[in-house]
Known about the structure:
- The structure is a single chain.
- The chain is globular and about 60 Å long.
- The strands form 2 sheets. A 5-stranded parallel beta sheet has the order 2-6-1-7-8, with helices on both faces. Strands 3-4-5 form a 3-stranded antiparallel beta sheet, with helices on one face.
- The protein contains 10 helices and 8 strands.
- The protein has a single domain, classed as P-loop containing nucleotide triphosphate hydrolases (Rossmann fold, 3-Layer(aba) Sandwich), CATH 3.40.50.
- It has helices spanning 33-44, 51-64, 72-81, 109-119, 122-138, 150-154, 168-179, 185-199, 222-230, 239-242, and strands spanning 22-26, 47-50, 84-87, 94-97, 100-101, 143-147, 160-165, 213-216.
- The model is unreliable at 1-9 (pLDDT under 50).
- The chain is α/β, with parallel strands linked by helices.
- It comes from Microlunatus antarcticus.
Amino acid sequence: MSDSPSPSGTPGHPVLSSTPLVVAIDGPSGSGKSSTSRGVAARLGLAYLDTGAMYRAATWLAVHEGVDLADVDAVADLVARAQLVLELAPEHHSVTIDGHDVTTAIRDPDVSAAVSAVATNLAVRADLVARQKQVIAEATGGIVAEGRDITTVVAPEAPVRVLLVADASARVARRHAELGEHVDAEAVHDQVVRRDRDDSTVAAFHDAAPGVTVLDSTELTLEQVVDAICALVPAAYDPAVAR
Ligand SMILES: Nc1ncnc2c1ncn2[C@@H]1O[C@H](COP(=O)(O)OP(=O)(O)O)[C@@H](O)[C@H]1O
Ligand SMILES: Nc1ccn([C@H]2C[C@H](O)[C@@H](COP(=O)(O)OP(=O)(O)O)O2)c(=O)n1
């Protein structure tokens, strides 16, 4: 790892950063964002923010309250009033909305099938992006945040920004293995390919913005992906250097 440039650091003796480390990770469904981000956060002792869980929780609430997802104003109003609490520890991540613990429920296939309708609601996006920025700003010990627009909109100034990609066939196969072989191929295809197509109308996660490192996980193990992302952390932030 090379020394990071710093105003007064000398080569070999970087000045340690006084700002908390932010690692931003985007990518399509099944590219490995959640598992990789948890691994990076655990290894570097950082908090972990799953922004997809916020869109999923908003979707769960709208369905629970019987709000028509096509009614963009009603959904936006509901979400604006919702109290959304995320546990940021990578080992025990939990999500609560308006007092309901939805950690497990937001992974239901019904939520996965419906979430793009909420994620493409621009008023909901503005609300959740503002909350995500606040969570990151308050993470004094540093944070890994992952989603679709973290490298471009939520944390474009993050010192580590990664677009995690993988071949569509690998992503579908991973999701199928995760959901179980009893889930039919059409449902898995819907969760990965159709959802990415809908989601990409409001967030650019297929092409890397300038300065964003593209990492292809198709042929890599989870550990290799975690290694590759940790290797991108400037020395001024590296806990191994800071010690
Ligand atoms: N590099 C990898 N190699 C093999 N399987 C992986 C890899 N990364 C993630 N997975 C698996 O693929 C599935 C989807 O990963 P996940 O982290 O949920 O992706 P995303 O958050 O991008 O949708 C999970 O079951 C996960 O364990
Ligand atoms: N920053 C984000 C995060 C997620 N989303 C949308 C896109 C997805 O359809 C849903 C759920 O995201 P999630 O990361 O949980 O989805 P996957 O685990 O990758 O399948 O939210 C978004 O639009 N912007």
